[in-house]
Amino acid sequence: MPTHKIIILGVAILVPILAVFFVLMYIRKSNRTLTDTQEDISDKELLEYINSQPDKIVDTKMLMRDFDLSKYESTIRLRHFYTNGILTILRSGSGLKSYYTLSRPIDKSYDLNLTDDPFMTKEDLLMIFKHYDYQVSMQEICLCTGLPLKIILEEMKYFEKEGVVNRLLKSNKDGFSHQRLFTLCEPYRSNPDAYMDLRDANIELKEIYRNLRNA
Asked: Residue 112: which of 126, 100, 95, 93 has the closest Cα?
């Protein structure tokens, strides 16, 4: 094979490999940022902070000013909420500046008497559903439990796999993000109080929590 064809073939193979490598590195760095900055402001505190603003609108500069986050850290935190449907992006008139607002209003008390476990147990989940009339969002689970969104995502995947919840997607107006809404599956939906004490499930949830905390 001629040398120039070998070079072209090598480049054609190398470019996608490098692209995948950089994407994986970006995801890893982003996940680490989500974990490390929880000490500066937890996901629950960030939701409360946004809701405390007179217009319910924030931008990266406000997080940099009030919580001493870098621009990258502020962007990652807000984008994480946005990609999971908790926030909606608003654009300035020029389209050059992004603002963020809650996709779903915080209009109900979330101070529930949950279990003392640091993770969300099945009892906690059923109590949250009962409090919110059997339809909940990621935002409401975060406010009730105080858990990072990253952990809630994995726990809800477990509940979905075990047939406890249905995951419903509601597209936002921008068409690029969606809210995750959850409803209970049967028989939990009809009689949630009968399934409060399920300790085996809580053991698995504890392991999910431990692994993510140590990641």
From this structure: 126
Write out the H or E segment, with its range, that includes residue 72.
Answer: helix 71-83
Could you tell me the two tokens for 166? Answer: 């249905």
Amino acid at residue number 122: K
Q: At what angle do helices 199-214 and 149-161 cross, to 10 degrees?
A: 140
Record the pTM. 0.82
Question: What's the pLDDT tens digit per position in 169-211?
Answer: 877 665 555 778 999 999 888 887 777 766 566 778 888 888 8
CB 81 within 8 A of CB 87: yes
d(CA 53, CA 63): 12
- The string of pLDDT tens digits covering residues 131-165 is 999 999 999 999 999 999 999 999 999 999 999 99
Say how far apart CA 196 and CA 86 lie, in whole Å.
28
Are 125 and 182 contacting, i.e. CB atoms less than 8 angstroms apart?
Answer: no
